[in-house]
Design brief:
Length: about 230
């Protein structure tokens, strides 16, 4: 694993974050890193959309930013190749998708196999894809949540590392439910990145291991009070 030295001479995992928009999950990582609970180096933030709030958040935190605008490429493969080149110039140990709303090619996901995480607002394998909160409400589910998973070629289909659950309340609309899920996203994503950086969380042969123990399909069972 490539590491750099921190001020205190501790080796730090190099984390690069991909975003498409608001970047509140990015902010949760920045805040955890600043408060000292997430001992990684945030080496760069790359957006596929120019002018988004997440880029401002990165700039305010002094993190280098790049835009690889997908609209300037005539196909998915060319975009992914340009994105990969931009990412690899920073030599990250871990690529973190934080609201990065692009379907990725198999070649791209293979290149980052075992070192790319995504956060998805549902209890995977339920509700892969878009509009998860609306679909949960339509289905009348009593429970919803968020998953952090390793990225594979299958969209939102890689093995789950962590999940957090929230109740669906009688007066919920999609917005209220999304906010409740987002609170949990901001709690578990820094935790997952920290555990990866500590070498505790790994994907081996398509299975996720925590402290060398294989995890089940719901990932590591964190309780509602776990924090980093
Ligand atoms: C988050 O809810 C994240 O789980 C979701 O996009 C939102 C980004 O918010 N990601 C996906 O749906 C990926 N399939 P943010 O930009 O404020 O972090």
């Amino acid at each position: 694993m490539t590491v750099t030295q921190s001020a205190s001479s501790q080796p730090r995992t190099r984390v690069l974050v991909l975003i498409s928009g608001n970047g509140s999950n990015l902010q949760a990582l920045i805040d955890a890193q600043r408060s000292g609970t997430l001992p990684v180096e945030l080496v760069a933030v790359i957006s596929n959309r120019p002018g988004v709030k997440g880029l401002q958040r990165a700039e305010s935190a002094g993190i280098p930013t790049e835009v690889v605008d997908h609209t300037l490429f005539d196909n998915r493969d060319n975009f992914d190749q340009a994105l990969q080149q931009t990412i690899d110039a920073y030599a990250p140990d871990l690529v973190v998708l934080a609201g990065f709303m692009r379907i990725l090619t198999e070649r791209f996901t293979h290149h980052y196999h075992g070192r790319m995480l995504n956060i998805h607002p549902s209890l995977l394998p339920k509700y892969q894809g878009l509009n998860t909160h609306e679909r949960v409400l339509q289905a009348g589910d009593a429970e919803h949540g968020v998953s952090v998973h390793f990225v594979t070629a299958e969209l939102d289909g890689g093995p789950v590392a962590l999940q957090a659950r929230v109740p669906v309340l009688p007066d919920d609309d999609a917005n209220r439910l999304a906010q409740r899920v987002l609170q949990q996203e901001h709690r578990i994503y820094p935790l997952a990145v920290k555990w990866f950086a500590q070498g505790r969380l790994r994907m081996v042969d398509g299975r996720v291991f925590m402290d060398s123990e294989p995890l089940g399909p719901s990932g590591y069972p964190i309780d509602n009070h776990a924090s980093i």
